[in-house]
């Protein structure tokens, strides 16, 4: 809505303002455009390998936990470039001008990664959620992942055969109270049967095991863990996007001179579609999590 003072301006004042604007338009726009171009050029130049202030000159040191689990890493070898987060790390490195041989991996436990203090790495990728309390102690890049929701069902069940969200309308779903998953069930799936709501994640898993529900809706990372470690005869039926999910970012030391450049690299990967390709390759059909629409 325009400011009230502009709505009340007289035609004479408006005309004078218009003339003044016309008189300075070209000069102002040229200066602004020139300044923006200069800033962009300086920013791009600062994010090149020879300008970045890394822990070791010419090397990008990347951290993650050990063991490093699939589908985020493969064979517990982050340096092989396989798995979602390994691939993301190397894609960021490439954007910054580092060849795979220039990337050094180090071990950093999950809990210590976001503790205050100096870091022995340039950035860390370890499914680390971006939260306000953590941002007080460390920096995060732009998010490289926003967790979609996923349906998990027992193998051989009717729910396990679904290939679309429409096929879940009459399925008895289970979900944890107060979660994004509950919102996803109500707003996206809109089942004909009210979802059974449980107090905590353990109760959700128990309900699935005991067949109190046909399937449960959880975020995708939880679905991988649930099917890989908690319920052996369960499968991820599929995933679907819901805005407002958990987001992960590359973690850096508080005030790191690399934060803006790593964010810029992630943003470029998003804009080019490369990040989505990596996501689909490692967290999609090949990982047993096809997309439901």
Description of the structure:
The chain has 293 residues and is an alpha/beta fold. The protein has two domains: 60-146 and 246-287, D-Maltodextrin-Binding Protein, domain 2 (3-Layer(aba) Sandwich), CATH 3.40.190.10; 149-240, Periplasmic binding protein-like II (D-Maltodextrin-Binding Protein, domain 2). 39% of the residues lie in helices and 18% in strands. It has a five-stranded mixed sheet. Helix 3 links the parallel strand 1 (60-64) and strand 2. The chain is elongated. The relative contact order is 0.15.
Topology readout:
Layout: H1 4-7, H2 11-46, E1 60-64, H3 84-95, E2 103-107, H4 110-113, E3 123-124, H5 132-135, E4 138-146, E5 149-154, E6 173-176, H6 180-189, E7 196-198, H7 201-209, E8 215-219, H8 220-230, E9 234-240, E10 247-253, H9 259-272, H10 274-283
Parallel strand pairs: 1-2, 1-3, 6-7, 6-8
Antiparallel strand pairs: 4-10, 5-8, 5-9
Helix pairs in contact: 3-9, 3-10
How would you summarize this macromolecular structure in one to three sentences?
The protein is α/β, with parallel strands linked by helices and about 290 residues long. The protein is about 40% helix and about 20% strand. The strands form three sheets. It has a five-stranded mixed sheet. A three-stranded parallel sheet has the order 2-1-3, with helices on one face.
């Amino acid at each position: 809505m325009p400011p009230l003072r502009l709505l009340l301006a007289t035609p004479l004042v408006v005309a004078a303002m218009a003339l003044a604007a016309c008189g300075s338009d070209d000069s102002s726009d040229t200066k602004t455009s020139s300044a923006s171009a200069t800033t962009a050029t300086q920013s791009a130049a600062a994010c090149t390998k020879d300008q970045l202030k890394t822990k070791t000159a010419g090397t990008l040191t990347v951290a993650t936990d050990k063991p490093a689990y699939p589908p985020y890493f493969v064979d517990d070898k982050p340096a092989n470039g396989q798995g979602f987060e390994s691939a993301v790390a190397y894609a960021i490195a490439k954007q910054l001008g580092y060849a795979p041989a220039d990337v050094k991996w180090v071990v950093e436990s999950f809990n210590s990664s976001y503790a205050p203090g100096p870091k022995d790495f340039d950035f860390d990728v370890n499914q680390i959620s971006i939260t306000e309390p953590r941002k007080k102690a460390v920096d995060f890049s732009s998010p490289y992942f926003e967790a979609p929701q996923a349906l998990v069902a027992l193998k051989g069940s009717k729910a396990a055969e679904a290939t679309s969200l429409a096929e879940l309308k009459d399925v008895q779903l289970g979900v944890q109270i107060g979660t994004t998953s509950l919102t996803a069930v109500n707003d996206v799936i809109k089942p004909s049967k009210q979802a059974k709501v449980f107090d905590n994640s353990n109760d959700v898993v128990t309900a699935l095991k005991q067949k109190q529900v046909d399937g449960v809706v959880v975020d995708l990372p939880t679905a991988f863990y649930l099917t890989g470690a908690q319920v052996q005869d369960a499968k991820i039926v599929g995933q679907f996007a819901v805005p407002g999910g958990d987001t992960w970012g590359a973690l850096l030391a508080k005030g790191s001179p690399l934060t803006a450049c790593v964010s810029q690299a992630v943003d470029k990967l998003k804009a080019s579609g490369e990040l989505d390709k990596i996501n689909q390759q490692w967290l999609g059909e090949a990982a047993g999590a096809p997309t439901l629409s």
